[in-house]
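wait is this the right file?? whatever heres the structure
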């Protein structure tokens, strides 16, 4: 996933070594920054932060280290008078979110007047396609106005024109549960700041509260689950440290990237989508994570993985049962059915000598003894040729001294694997067309992840999507006429990532790539349609959506 950091907390370090600071942020894994920008003389304060001219000066360094500006905190003696300058800045540097702090004097009169000012600024920004957000300290949380936190009262007073950029660390320090705060204000929140704290404002002064993210009282995972669910910008605001603050920032983004695979507090919804009418039928809801439904030829049975096992689900009876997969006790979401539905091939994860791997096995459709197919891993299965002779899969292999992620094929009876793609980008999700002529797959070889197809032998690769989003897992309908695929928004993650519990879309196109249309937006991603899930009628398909349980 993509994360940013606020620069104010490290402003002194940045001002002493701009390039070195940006390099360390980039090396740590940050993708964007959020500067504070002064649009007028502020009595010397502007020397500590950026001006519009600073952005000009630092632009080459940002480009050098693949960093962009996600949003800005803005300051001016008269911000309404400077709003046109803010808009010009936004257009020039591609910034659409601007942030202001709440007033330090917390009274009904002060906050009412500030709400009028913010609404006027927001109106001007909105007309230019930009938005104004308000940011909090802990005092706006611990102080109440008419029974609400001052921060929430102010946002409500703005009448829906102004959004929120909560600092969840200050929410925690102010004595309010961050998870509950986030969800009850979900409709207003456009980005989030992470800060961790040692206690709350009844236990210690604010200037002693800060600590590296993940080492304090903040439930970072709960806040992350909310932000990922909402698909909003996530920034670390580390402004205190017991050691090297840049090391703390590096640890913080490492934690957040690790949380990208988090599936805690999720419910799984097994659904059927009618691609012609758009009707969705929810078949069942599970408290466990289930993934990757395959449909049998009988039109009534789905197979999916959950908790390392493979399960059969009857659509008509709404019943499920786990089949015996023998030594394959950690099956992942890459499994396919033989054309005659007598066997299932699975990808089983394991740790070999402490190293993670995934190997492909075949076993009877109703369970039995697996036989190993791929000699090495990681191997992630996605396709079984319609003649039953061959499997296609994504494999991580060392080629010419470096790791390459490519599409491979192997005889279904076992044997020597064949590399079908040539190491261009990250290639995954191979699936045979019903006539066996083509293999469809997805690849980053053109930049973003896009859908491709090639001849069965790997020749003549052809790009089939060219979207401003990351396209994954193209699945051809049984009649060979249509292709469904999953997309992630461009700025939400790295092109080679396919993460769970994110805002995604299902799209449909003709076999030749024409007539693309969106079918559905939902919370999903990893596990939703990793493998072929069309029903035999070539009209309906199975997919899994997810939801987050929260306080």
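ok assuming it is, sequence goes like this
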């Amino acid at each position: 996933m993509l994360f940013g950091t606020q620069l104010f907390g490290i402003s002194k370090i940045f001002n002493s070594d701009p390039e070195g600071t940006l390099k360390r942020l980039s090396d740590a894994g940050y993708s964007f920054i959020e500067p504070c920008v002064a649009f007028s003389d502020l009595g010397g304060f502007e020397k500590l932060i950026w001006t519009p001219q600073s952005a000009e000066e630092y632009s080459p360094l940002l480009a050098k280290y693949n960093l962009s500006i996600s949003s800005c905190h803005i300051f001016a003696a008269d911000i309404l008078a400077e709003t046109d300058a803010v808009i010009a800045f936004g257009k020039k540097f591609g910034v659409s979110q601007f942030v202001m702090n709440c007033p330090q004097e917390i009274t009904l009169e002060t906050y009412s007047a500030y709400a009028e000012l913010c609404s006027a600024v927001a109106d001007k920004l909105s007309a230019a396609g930009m938005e104004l957000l308000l940011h909090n300290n802990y005092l706006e949380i611990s102080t109440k106005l008419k029974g609400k936190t001052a921060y929430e009262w102010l946002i409500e007073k703005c009448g829906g024109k102004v959004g929120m950029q909560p600092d969840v660390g200050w929410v925690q320090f102010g004595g309010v549960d961050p998870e509950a705060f986030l969800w009850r204000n979900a409709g207003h929140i456009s980005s989030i700041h992470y800060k961790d704290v040692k206690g709350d404002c009844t236990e210690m002064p604010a200037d002693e509260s800060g600590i590296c993210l993940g080492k304090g009282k903040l439930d970072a995972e709960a806040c992350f689950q909310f932000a990922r669910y909402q698909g909003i910008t996530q920034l670390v605001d580390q402004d205190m440290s017991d050691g090297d603050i840049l090391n703390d920032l590096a640890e913080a983004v490492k934690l957040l990237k690790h949380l990208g695979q988090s599936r805690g507090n999720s419910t799984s919804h097994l659904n059927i989508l009618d691609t012609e009418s758009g009707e969705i039928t929810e078949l069942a809801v599970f408290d466990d994570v289930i993934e990757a439904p395959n449909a049998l030829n009988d039109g009534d049975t789905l197979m999916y993985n959950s908790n390392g096992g493979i399960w059969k689900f009857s659509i008509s009876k709404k019943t499920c049962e786990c089949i015996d997969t023998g030594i394959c006790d950690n099956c992942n979401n890459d499994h396919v059915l033989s054309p005659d539905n007598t066997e299932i091939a699975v990808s089983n994860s394991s740790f070999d000598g402490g190293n993670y791997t995934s190997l492909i096995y075949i076993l009877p459709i109703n369970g039995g003894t697996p036989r190993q197919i791929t000699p090495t891993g990681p191997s992630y299965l996605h396709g079984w040729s319609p003649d039953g002779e061959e499997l296609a899969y994504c494999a991580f292999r060392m080629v010419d001294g470096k790791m390459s992620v490519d599409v491979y094929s192997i005889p279904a009876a076992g044997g020597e694997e064949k590399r079908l793609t040539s190491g261009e980008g990250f290639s995954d999700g191979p699936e045979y067309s019903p006539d066996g002529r083509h293999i469809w797959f997805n690849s980053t070889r053109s930049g973003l992840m896009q859908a491709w197809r090639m001849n069965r032998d790997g020749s003549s690769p052809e790009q089939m999507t060219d979207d401003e989003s990351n396209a994954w897992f193209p699945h051809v309908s049984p009649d060979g006429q249509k292709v469904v695929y999953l997309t992630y928004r461009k700025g939400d993650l790295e092109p080679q990532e396919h993460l769970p519990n994110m805002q995604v879309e299902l799209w449909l196109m003709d076999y030749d790539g024409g007539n693309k249309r969106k079918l559905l937006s939902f919370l999903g991603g990893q596990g939703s349609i990793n493998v072929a899930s069309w029903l035999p009628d070539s009209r309906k398909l199975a997919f899994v959506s997810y939801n987050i349980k929260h306080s």
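The first strand starts at residue 4 and ends at 6. so i think its the right one actually
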